[in-house]
Specification:
With 747 residues, this protein is mostly beta strands. The chain contains 9 helices and 54 strands.
């Protein structure tokens, strides 16, 4: 029973409640927006540059793609407290005037500017978060949304505890009520803006997501959930290394209903840019005036559509250390497809070094020969030596860079570019590119690209792109890797994305995406997305997983596929979780199968009921929408006893079956241990139950429950088991069998 108590402790922190669903007829939708931008935060605070720009930018995307009509938009720029109060009164009147039967009203308030832990800072005035929440809740709208891009704005989301639900929809096929609050930072963080992007990080990423960068489903519509997830990850990634530090957007969502809230619909725009599936890398889309319109990280294998205004645009594409550019024009009502072949390399500009020579000022995209062309280096078939300075490359060329096809050294060999084989007892160093094979007992080092094989007892280190295989007893390190296979007894490290396999006895660590397999005895780590398989004895960790994670402990942010292990943890789960303990912040689809399954948007119920063998029972049920784990504690008395004669502790697994909006069935199997009232934890009697419990929801947090049970009681010591029930039982060779009943309440 110690094991049962241990599992029960895991249930305590899981506080989530499933919202009742309801069906509703189709209705028309009308959305209103109040947009506030204030650069002036008052005396002692630096004047912002882009708060007004952010408000206009967010308003533009709502009008172009979000279904907000110009007459339903109220714009307040550089206003004080009195101006905001007046705008809120006008906004409430606009919303109230539009309320008609059969029309669902949605109201959105956006603010960009200064704030602190207490409220919004409007020039010399402050507008408190409590006042703002009251103003939001007083709006006569079915759905109310607040988006704050300001310092410490997460305080508003913490004013009242919220539970995130699956994203909800603006289309007429859904029925949803409630509010959603998104903030650009947590309660103790600053929100940041950037001259490079011409706006704040959060609004810039949110607008990019609403224009289509966040459409992970590929259905041409961006939901609130997709937009928030995109803005969260991009804002965090872009601010991790700023002087102000990482910025974590926050949320408070309290909604009830069905469907997803579509924030923008790309099918309604006049012009669409289609990025075909072979296009990958980080993309920067700028308009004809050079303003950054959309920024996103595009993955190969998936088509992405962006809703833009008609006009001329340019796209800068960065993949590892390569940069390319494409230009296009969008016409009215047109769809322009941008293929990977449309991008042209951006050539580096040669600059003079002090002391002579020339080097590229910027990295040349896809043309490593450009650097060599201006360097005047030579090519020799063979290099023989002990170490740099005492090798034919240096002795015959006065130290100038030399390309080799074959290099043999007892100590360390160095060449500019290797197109062949290099063998050394110490180390091989290629300052440019390898198209062949390097073998070393010590280490292999490549400063440029590697297209071939490296073998080392010590380690392999590649600074640029790598395509081929690295194998080492010690460590494989690729600072910026492309397609690559890494095999090591120690560890594999990839500085950016990896497509291939990482296999290590120690661990695998990738700073970018993994498209392939990570296998390790110790751990696997992918900072971004894993498309494929992670297998480890110890730990698998991935920000996004598209495939399977197999390990004792699996941790994923956004998981689509399977997690199999002792403990599985996911932020957003779509697929199978199979383990002793399964935890997910948001379970969208799929099934968690385990002894304890916890989902914030799943079940958490407390039950109080009486049964035929215990007059008082308390139970906790926690799990996903359809599967749950229950812990039951009860006490009862034998017939003729004046007080309690025994107490029981049970653990079980079950299935929740919603029958209608208010009626449900629970089917579970529970094993209980019965203890004598005056003896602690010395119970020999085991009671196994198969229970069918029907429930009727009389209120959102109150249900009447009851139903029949099938009970089997036996004594592990072999002694005949006495009947604890008030109902008659059948004695089958020392085992008691009887049908029972339980009735109670659930909250």
């Amino acid at each position: 029973m110690t094991r049962s108590l241990l599992f029960s402790l895991l249930l305590v922190p899981a506080l989530a409640a499933a919202a009742p669903t309801s069906s509703a007829p189709r209705a028309s939708v009308r959305r209103f927006a109040l947009l506030v931008g204030v650069n002036d935060g008052g005396e002692g605070r630096a004047r912002l540059r882009y708060a007004v720009t952010d408000a206009r930018s967010f308003g533009n995307v709502l009008e172009e793609l979000g279904g907000v009509q110009p007459r339903d938009t109220l714009l307040l720029l550089e206003g004080d407290r009195a101006a905001l109060e007046s705008a809120l009164v006008r906004f409430k009147a606009m919303v109230a005037a539009a309320t008609t039967p059969g029309t669902r009203i949605e109201a959105l308030i956006y603010y960009s500017g200064h704030s602190d832990e207490q409220g919004l800072l409007l020039q010399k005035d402050r507008f408190g978060y409590r006042e703002l929440r009251q103003a939001l809740e007083s709006l006569p709208a079915d759905v109310r949304i607040a988006i704050l891009d300001s310092c410490a704005s997460g305080t508003l989301a913490r004013q009242k505890g919220g539970v995130r639900r699956p994203a909800f929809m603006v289309d007429a096929s859904s029925a949803v009520r409630g509010h959603a609050i998104l903030t650009s930072s947590s309660e103790d963080e600053v929100s940041q803006e950037s001259d490079r992007i011409g706006g704040s990080f959060f609004t810039h990423n949110l607008v990019s997501g609403l224009r289509g960068a966040a459409d992970v489903s590929g259905d041409g519509r961006v939901t609130l959930h997709e937009a928030y997830q995109f803005a969260f990850h991009e804002t965090l990634a872009r601010t991790e290394e700023t002087r102000a530090g990482a910025q974590h957007p926050a949320y408070d969502i309290e909604l009830a209903g069905t469907g997803d809230l579509v924030m923008t619909d790309l099918r309604s725009t006049a012009a669409v840019l289609v990025l075909e599936d072979l296009v990958d890398g980080r993309l920067y889309v700028r308009d004809s005036q050079g303003r950054l319109v959309v920024e996103l990280k595009k993955y190969a294998g998936r088509t992405t559509e962006l809703g833009l205004q008609k006009g001329r645009y340019s796209v800068m594409r960065k993949v590892l250390d390569q940069t390319s550019r494409a230009e296009f024009e969008l016409g009215e009502g047109g769809r322009t497809v941008l293929a990977a072949s449309a991008f042209r390399a951006v050539q580096g500009e040669l600059t003079a070094m002090r002391g002579g020579g020339a080097l590229p000022a910027t990295v040349s995209a896809g043309a490593p020969e450009v650097a060599a062309a201006g360097s005047g280096r030579r090519s020799r078939f063979v290099n023989v030596g002990l170490f740099p300075g005492l090798q034919t490359n240096d002795l015959m060329t006065s130290g100038e860079p030399v390309d080799n096809h074959l290099s043999v050294s007892m100590g360390m060999s160095r060449m500019a570019r290797l197109d062949g084989v290099a063998v050394a007892l110490g180390a091989n160093v290629a300052t440019d590119q390898v198209d062949g094979l390097q073998l070393a007992l010590g280490a292999n080092v490549v400063r440029g690209d590697m297209s071939g094989t490296q073998w080392a007892i010590g380690g392999n280190w590649t600074h640029g792109k790598a395509e081929g295989l690295q194998a080492a007893i010690g460590l494989n390190l690729a600072r910026a890797s492309g397609t690559l296979g890494q095999l090591a007894v120690g560890a594999n490290v990839s500085g950016t994305s990896l497509a291939g396999a990482q296999l290590a006895v120690g661990g695998n660590w990738t700073a970018g995406d993994v498209d392939g397999v990570q296998g390790a005895v110790g751990f696997n780590h992918a900072r971004d997305r894993v498309t494929g398989l992670q297998v480890a004895v110890g730990l698998n960790w991935a920000a996004e997983a598209r495939g399977a994670q197999l390990s004792l402990l699996n941790v994923g942010g956004d998981v689509k596929g399977a997690q199999v292990g002792l403990v599985n943890v996911a932020g957003r789960m779509n697929g199978l979780q199979l383990g002793l303990v399964n935890v997910s912040r948001e379970l969208e689809s799929g099934v968690p199968v385990g002894l304890v399954s916890i989902a914030r948007n799943g079940q958490f119920h407390v039950e109080a009921f009486g049964s035929d063998f215990n007059y008082a029972n308390t139970a906790i049920k926690v799990g996903s929408r359809y599967l749950y784990t229950t812990l039951v504690l009860g006490m009862g008395s034998m017939e003729g006893a004046r007080g309690p004669s025994h107490w029981s502790l049970g653990l079980g697994l079950g299935a929740h079956i919603p029958v209608s909006e208010r009626f449900f069935l629970d089917v579970d199997a529970v094993s209980n241990t019965l203890y004598d009232w005056n003896v602690s934890f010395e119970g020999d009697r085991l009671l196994h139950q198969l229970r069918l419990v029907a429930g009727f929801q009389v209120a959102p947090n109150l249900a009447i429950i009851g139903g029949p049970t099938l009970n089997v009681l036996h004594d592990v010591s072999g002694e005949p088991a006495s009947n604890p029930s008030r109902l008659p039982s059948l004695d089958a060779g020392g085992v008691r069998l009887w049908p029972g009943v339980q009735v109670g309440l659930r909250i």
